[in-house]
Amino acid sequence: MPLKWVLHWQPNAGTTVNSQIINEVTQVVESINGIKEGRWKATITFYKPLLREQALVGEYPRDFLGIALPEQPNKYYLIIRPLRIVLEADSTITMIMEKLQSYKQRVSLNFEGFQYQLGDFQLRVGKVLPNHSENLRGIVMEVEYLPISSMEKARQIMEEFMTIWDQAVTKRALPGHFVHMEPNFGEFGLGDQYTSQHTAVQYAAVMAQLIATVQAVQGRN
């Protein structure tokens, strides 16, 4: 499958994310001839175990992430970050967990916005919002290169695209920039050929960065 980078918006010191930045970013996409194709949505859910006996604490992961991706509507991805485990399951796993009452949903975050076609690239720009809330928590962007599935073969092309992108963003003097922090996929047992599990691991990493950014802002206030 085509490979993608998942990036998050890093605000400049003393600034926060807001809907105006989203509007500006979508204008940047359109300024480099991005063609709007429609909406997209991914969801990350934090789960924690429901332990009836304290003695079982060591037998269950303390918590994990569940990820629903739009390109794989019949699949669900489970990530236990401390153990570097990523699993692909049937989407019905969420109903099974609910019936077994083994894990409880703590919070869900939606990544949603618009999808654009740009030559051989597909871009998705979206807000990060808690479920049932309009309280903006961050901004993400997916950059997908359609012809290649090898991460190493596509790296130079992706870096060149990001250089062009950064130049377009700089012209608008926005108070921040998109950051790509590639996880160590090998730690999760993933190779060079891109899969949806790579996407799930990237979303988990982005989630950790967004939480760290929010905590840093709160610490300054």
Number of strands: 9
User: Which structural class do the helices and strands define?
Assistant: alpha+beta
Strand percentage: 35-45%
Whole-number average pLDDT?
A: 88
User: Which sequence of SSEs, written as H and E, runs from N to C?
Assistant: EHEEEEHEEEHEH
Cα(first) to Cα(last) distance is: 43 Å
Helical stretch count? Answer: 4
The major pleated sheet works out as:
9 strands, antiparallel
Question: Taking strands numbered 1, 2, ... along the chain, how are they ordered across the largest sheet?
Answer: 5-4-3-2-6-7-8-1-9
The amount of helix comes to 25-40%
Shape assignment: globular
Low-confidence stretches: none
List the helices and strands and how they pair.
Elements: E1 3-11, H1 19-31, E2 35-49, E3 64-68, E4 75-80, E5 85-90, H2 93-100, E6 103-118, E7 121-130, E8 138-145, H3 151-170, E9 176-179, H4 196-220
Antiparallel strand pairs: 1-8, 1-9, 2-3, 2-6, 3-4, 4-5, 6-7, 7-8
Question: Would you kindly provide a written description of the structure presented here, covering whatever features stand out?
Answer:
By secondary structure, the protein is of the alpha+beta class. Helices cover 30% and strands 36% of the residues. It is built from four helices and nine strands, in the order βαββββαβββαβα. It has helices at residues 19-31, 93-100, 151-170, 196-220; strands spanning 3-11, 35-49, 64-68, 75-80, 85-90, 103-118, 121-130, 138-145, 176-179. It has a nine-stranded antiparallel sheet, with helices on both faces. The termini are far apart. 29% of the residues are buried. The mean pLDDT is 88.
